[in-house]
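Inverse folding, one chain.
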């Protein structure tokens, strides 16, 4: 995020007080920026405790997401799409449909710095906390000044739903998404207010970062981002001192389109940068069983919030339950709400040019909070709107957007237009900051527990999948989701025998070969990685096939080689298993002796997405280099 490092404190024409204050110092030289980062220590502290919070909802998931990421990295693959050990070892295209950015950062710590799996995950949680404070500070400072930015960043970090994500849910991807949300708003706004290439590039990087972090949160957030873009563009249509109503409709519309053009280009470029992920994710989504994502305990109908819960101080650990007696809390936070309401009331008259943005945050925050409530249930049943809302799985996930809006509004009481910048204002700033921190104090705790499945490894992963019925996603060819496997048996047996638990030596299902012993059909594994296996076979009769203990999914391809470790001479058909319920891969082989290579490769959508991303990055880098050269050339002249 180089554009952030280059950021100079910007004021805006909305508020002369905010402008003069924001222009006082470079962002990196702003003491309140560093104070905002330092005050995250209370949210960070629980992650510095010895042990790990294994009991949090998704805490185990992220350890094993990282475990699988590292398994494929050991084979030299840094952009994995297939996870060979999920679904009890039958495999699942996890990172083809799930944003990998958070776990990529964790893998850097694990692979290069020797962090343990749990320490790497906790470290990225810490990064997400500090990063979210810095991002919110930069965003609010650009239009509200330094003191408003400090309060907004503290409310953003210590908002109950953010802490719920951190300590109770343990959801790393959604916590990291909290960094990108204000960065998207900031860069989009600056591209309108202070149009330049760096803000277009900043919007592209921010939006792409959010996509690569959480393709779920980006769907929830994009309507707000689009509304905010149009709102800020509308607020800057008219020249200073001229009413929008006084402009002819044609001129007004042209100015609006022109103001919105640069940030729109930035967001489109963000889609281009992240096409390597979202294009195959979207086009190949049909090849996985989505019923597992939205049925059972993931059915939205049992996960609405009751109105009193928005203000209930109840806070606990565990899994969200149906009904009003939920063991965990979904409060908005009394102090953030009071600050937001007070801020709107105090800033409405003096901060006239911010009114449209205030209205945007009030409407978006109120609407997304309402969508979580039982009263909004009929909206979730509508054909088109319901499909969009249901993408959240749990209605209370919309709190991520509501929390963002609430934090931005909570900084309004500290606008320079609302109070004077003197010693009393500093005392008021300290009092409000202390109030925010004290209000969150009862929520700043985690439950440190021991891993019920044992030390991180393949055997523990199998136990986790069985006990929790998690990470057992299946492809579209699977008729019945497996509850155990021969691979899991092998891992557990090795552990009990005190042997080293290593990945199974072959994906081939050798039990199917027993039926052909009398005919001499023989298969022997020669080499195997997480996404490839080469086997030698002998088949004296036609109609024989090799069955692999991996679910079928587009991207797997089989070849007949010209010798051991040789070159492909013929592509063999992969037929999804028709017998049974597992939908495994089967490869019919020619009569005689030969070598067969089964390998997971890129498909057309994956190749197209990669080229689009590379092309977009090349255009942005080229445009930036050309503009820099033009400036230097102009300076010489």
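Residues assigned per position:
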């Amino acid at each position: 995020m180089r554009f952030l490092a280059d950021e100079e404190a910007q004021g805006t024409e909305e508020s002369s007080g905010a402008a003069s204050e924001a222009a006082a110092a470079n962002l990196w030289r702003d003491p309140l920026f560093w104070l905002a980062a330092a005050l995250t220590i209370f949210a960070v502290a629980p992650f510095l405790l010895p042990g790990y919070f294994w009991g949090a909802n998704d805490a185990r998931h992220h350890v094993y997401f990282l475990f699988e990421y590292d398994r494929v990295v050991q084979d030299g693959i840094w952009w994995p799409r297939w996870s060979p050990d999920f679904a009890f070892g039958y495999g699942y295209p996890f990172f083809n449909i799930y944003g990998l950015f958070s776990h990529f950062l964790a893998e850097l710590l694990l692979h290069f710095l020797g962090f343990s799996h749990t320490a790497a995950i906790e470290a990225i949680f810490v990064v997400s906390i500090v990063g979210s404070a810095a991002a919110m500070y930069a965003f609010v400072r650009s239009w509200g000044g330094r003191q408003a930015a400090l309060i907004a960043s503290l409310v953003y970090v210590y908002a109950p739903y953010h802490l719920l994500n951190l300590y109770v849910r343990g959801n790393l991807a959604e916590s990291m998404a909290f960094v990108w949300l204000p960065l998207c708003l900031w860069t989009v706004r600056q591209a309108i207010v202070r149009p330049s290439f760096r803000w277009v590039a900043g919007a592209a990087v921010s939006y792409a970062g959010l996509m690569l972090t959480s393709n779920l949160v980006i769907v929830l957030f994009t309507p707000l981002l689009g509304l905010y873009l149009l709102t800020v563009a509308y607020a800057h249509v008219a020249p200073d001192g001229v009413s929008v109503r006084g402009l002819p409709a044609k001129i007004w519309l042209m100015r609006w389109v022109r103001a919105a053009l640069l940030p729109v280009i930035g967001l489109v470029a963000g889609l281009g940068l992240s096409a390597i992920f979202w294009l195959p994710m979207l086009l190949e989504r049909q090849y996985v069983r989505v019923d597992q994502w939205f049925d059972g305990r993931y059915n939205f109908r049992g996960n609405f919030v009751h109105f009193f819960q928005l203000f209930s101080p109840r806070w606990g650990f565990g899994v969200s339950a149906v009904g009003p007696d939920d063991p965990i809390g979904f409060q908005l936070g009394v102090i953030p709400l009071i600050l937001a309401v007070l801020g709107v009331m105090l800033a409405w008259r003096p901060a006239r040019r911010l009114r449209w943005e205030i209205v945007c945050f009030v409407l978006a925050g109120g609407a997304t909070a309402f969508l979580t409530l039982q009263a909004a249930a009929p909206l979730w049943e509508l054909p088109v709107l319901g499909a969009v809302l249901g993408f959240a799985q749990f209605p209370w996930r919309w709190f991520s957007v509501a929390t963002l809006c609430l934090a931005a509004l909570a900084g309004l009481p500290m606008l320079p237009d609302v109070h004077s910048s003197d010693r009393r204002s500093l005392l008021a700033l300290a009092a409000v900051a202390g109030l925010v921190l004290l209000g969150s104090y009862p929520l700043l705790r985690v439950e440190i527990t021991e891993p019920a499945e044992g030390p991180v490894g393949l055997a523990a992963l199998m136990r986790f999948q069985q006990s929790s019925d998690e990470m057992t996603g299946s492809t579209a060819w699977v008729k019945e989701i497996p509850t155990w496997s021969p691979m899991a048996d092998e891992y557990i047996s090795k552990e009990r025998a005190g042997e080293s638990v290593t990945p199974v030596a072959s994906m081939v299902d050798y039990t199917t070969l027993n039926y052909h012993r009398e005919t001499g059909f023989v298969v022997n594994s020669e080499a195997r990685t997480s996404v490839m296996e080469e086997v030698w076979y002998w088949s004296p009769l036609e109609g024989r096939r090799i069955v692999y203990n991996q679910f079928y999914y587009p991207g797997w391809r089989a070849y007949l080689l010209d010798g051991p470790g040789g070159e492909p001479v013929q592509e063999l058909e992969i037929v999804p298993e028709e017998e049974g319920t597992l939908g495994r891969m089967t490869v019919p082989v020619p009569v005689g002796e030969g070598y067969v290579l089964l390998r997971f490769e890129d498909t057309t959508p994956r190749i197209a997405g990669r080229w689009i991303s590379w092309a977009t990055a090349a255009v942005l880098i080229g445009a930036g280099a050309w503009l820099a050269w033009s400036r230097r050339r102009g300076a010489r002249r």
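Strands lie at 522-529, 532-539, 545-551, 556-561, 568-572, 575-576, 584-588, 592-600. Residues 1-25 have pLDDT under 50 and may be disordered.
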